[in-house]
Amino acid sequence: MSEEQSRAQASRDWYKKMAFYQIWVRSFMDGNGDGIGDLYGVYDKLDYIKSLGVDGIWFSPIYPSPNADFGYDISDYRNIHPDYGDLAQFQKVLHRAHELGLKVIMDLVVNHTSDEHFWFQESRKGKDNPYSDYYIWRDKPNNWDSILEGKAWEYDAQRGQYYLHLFAKKQPDLNMDNPRVREEVKGILRFWLDMGVDGFREDVINFISKKEGLPDGLPFLPVINGLPYYKDGPHIHEYMAEFRSVCKEYNCFQLGEGPLTTVRSALRYLTGPEKSLDMMFSFDHMMADCIYTEYLHRPFSLVKLKKAFTKWQNALNGKAWNALYLENHDHPRVISRYGSERYWRESGTMLAASYLFQQGTPFLYQGQEIGMTNIRLHSIDQYMDVSSHTNFHRYHLKESLEKRMERIHHSSRDSSRTPMQWDDTEHAGFTTGEPWFVVNPNYTRINVAAEERDPESILQFYRKCLALRKKSKALLWGSYREFFPEDRSVYMYERAYEGVWYLIICSFAPFTVRVRVPREYAGRRGKLVLCNYSKEEREKQRGIRRVFAGTLDSGDNTKAEHGWFLPYEARVYRF
Ligand code: GLC
Ligand code: CA
Fold it and tell me: What pLDDT score does 552 carry?
């Protein structure tokens, strides 16, 4: 181990042992019967969250917002959206979460505000308004596209100028070059830290500093043509240092969302004297079935997925710490993408094992732990998310309606935003009223109550994985190594630490596959500690197994040779 590595392992910051649960409150649990999830519902479900074996909650934005981008367009940074409760209810949740030993992190969205924020309302009044330079105004737009809605510039008649919005029209970008704006951000951090929150997930934080002059982007690249001029911009690390200094006073945790970040640029945020973030959400592994947005869909490639996983594992090992995830409110459900709805339970559990045992802090998104899947709505009008509509109208206009709807079915962020499926009663037990958004009709089969009863369910498997991770030093701190990276059916990785080895083997194939054992393991004795097929299910397959199987198949203390894996089978061995 290099000196650097041992130093990094020695600093076992509190967040490294944790696992987080992400809540998108609007669809989590409705506590007052108006059809909208809220903090009353969250309060009632804190014991459930704790029971998963996680140690913290990340709240997607719960501040006042006109919901042009469902909370990511904030109109007041220091309050709670009335749909979700109020500050007193938030404090109640925070207090109870802390009693249960759960940390709470908030979403910090400061690349932009809502156009209904007071600052923007003032700014648009004119150049001599005190808030005039809080946003990015120009007489003439450049050629940038926005990410969520058309061109990146919108004309404001009141001001007589265009404002920049990298996301939706109702999300004007803040001018971070203005020191007053940065003071505002620090004020927001202090406001929530003083209330007792434990950290922040910082939205598109690598976009907040824009290149002077805002040059035209590459004309042939749609959607992200301006990226070279707003990603990791010229002053980003100075601004990040300012925010870090506030957070340091509170020893809080900072996790940055880094859309399209590379390893190299991520390491600048995560290491060295400039370190400004504890972790970063990278995106490479979310592109194994698409080109930078799910809308440009292509067939799933396991090799691509493994490459992305391994690239980040290797690059950060000993230097920084990974944030592990497969789902959040921006991506369709992972079973529908990288797994199989047909082998729903098998692939849902296998996917859990494919990422929860990597080095890093795992994040679970609400509903992922019960294997929720994509929705299929019949008309584009039923979709709620601005990007579903933009995508539907932006490309592929020459394709048939069916084809375009199929793309939406694959790609829509709405699939992760349907109400949480608690039980098989009306509206999946999410609300006693009319739900604000459609409930996936599969709730009668896929729901928390049913999976609580079933010892082999996806829910129980997540619990087992998180418990195993927590009690094993090798799974927490061990090094990472991948085997057979070119294998198109199996993902196999090792975690090793102080004479203990874990071998995690995940089949991504919808059929039985033969799995080789790496040379290093041949003949070694290992113990099967976790498997997503029950003993009985595996016994049933014994016929095939006896014929072909090496000793990797049988249970305890067996020699590793080779073996046959059932569809989407996942196993964890300890050596
Ligand atoms: C982040 C959020 C996403 C939002 C965007 C603009 O990517 O996760 O939901 O639309 O930023 O705030
Ligand atoms: Ca409600």
Answer: 54
